[in-house]
Amino acid sequence: MNIGILTAGGDCPGLNAVIRGAVMKGDRIHGQTFLGIRDGWRGLVEDDVIPLPRHEVRGLSRQGGTILGTSRVSPFRGDAGGAERVKEVMAAHAMDAIIAIGGEGTLTVARMLYDEGVPIVGVPKTIDNDLSATDYTFGFDTAVSIATESVDRLRTTAESHHRCMVVEVMGRHVGWIALHAGLAGGAHAVLVPEVPVTLDQVCEWVESARDRGRAPLVVVAEGFTLEDGDIIARDAVDGFGRPRLGGVGEALGPLIEERTGIETRVATLGHLQRGGVPTSYDRVLATRFGAAAIDAVVERKWGTMVSLRGIDIETVDLRSATTELKVVPRHRWDEAAVLFG
Ligand code: F6P
């Protein structure tokens, strides 16, 4: 079998480990050959496909980013040619199947291609950990580790200057990174998109930390909005109406300073959270996902996606992968909120 692999959407630590896991298993156990599709769906639309022999994936599990490149191109947008164009390029390279590694957008395209008869298997990826069809996605653990280390570092400078520090982390729709990094870093407030709170409440936590002699630390997810007004929401969207990195933190910091009189600084972690080497947890999960994708291909489970359930890897329908967002449930935030202030 000749299998095409692509990585699409935002990059994420662990993508290379998936590629390595798939190629190693496919080559060794099944004698399969591999093709690298460059820059996600763009490579299929523009016929940018390269051989991906086993020696090319050597040592890849510890390397961040993706050796195949990525883009947000969709074969179904504009005059890209849709499933017909994808089938044409696949035929030109005698490609029997595709392993598509990506988040919600990528997996939606994968499902649409499957519906049009393309043999395809998905591998979920997102640092946000917001896909409900899998317990965890690789990249999340790395992002949380980077954010936690940053919170630890910001704490010492905040303490030295008796300042409040607002740390903005990624999380456009969900607050998993904020929640975990906030808990791990001992934040005095964790603000997530799922639970709007008032500015009064935020300032109460900040002042309570200050009154106990602490440097108040607020971790905020980029998609957070205040309950009592749209001042943050208005300033925080980009030209596409998406939360803008740095928008929430930059808007919130001055509000806290104005309201509490505590000097406040803002740090936006942004793409630092997606860069560099994956943690060991993410390398293991990504490698297992890659190997499991090969099992799914061998069993011709087209239209499915590999998924972590407890400690086991299973396959689930691609449709279920793209229908529901895994949000932070209220009780998980309440558990953490007991420690705020
Ligand atoms: O979905 C993953 C994510 O990292 C979000 O947390 C963030 O909002 C977004 O991607 C950033 O995307 P881009 O790299 O296109 O700026």
Could you give the topology of this structure?
Layout: E1 2-7, H1 15-30, E2 33-37, H2 41-45, E3 49-51, H3 82-92, E4 97-102, H4 104-115, E5 120-124, H5 140-161, E6 164-169, H6 176-185, E7 189-191, H7 199-211, E8 217-221, H8 231-235, H9 247-260, E9 264-268, H10 280-298, E10 304-309, E11 312-317, H11 318-321, H12 330-337
Parallel strand pairs: 1-2, 1-4, 4-5, 5-10, 6-8, 6-9, 7-8
Antiparallel strand pairs: 2-3, 10-11
Helix pairs in contact: 1-10, 5-6, 7-9
This protein binds 6-O-phosphono-beta-D-fructofuranose (F6P).
Cofactor: Mg(2+)
Binding site for Mg(2+): 104
Binding site for ATP: 10, 72-73, 103-106
Query: What is the CATH topology classification name of the largest domain?
Result: Rossmann fold
Uncertain regions: pLDDT < 50 for 5+ in a row?
none
**What's the order of the H and E elements?**
EHEHEHEHEHEHEHEHHEHEEHH
Main-sheet strand order equals 3-2-1-4-5-10-11
Distance between the termini: 58 Å
Tally the helices. 12
Percent of residues in helices comes to 40-55%
Integer count of domains: 2
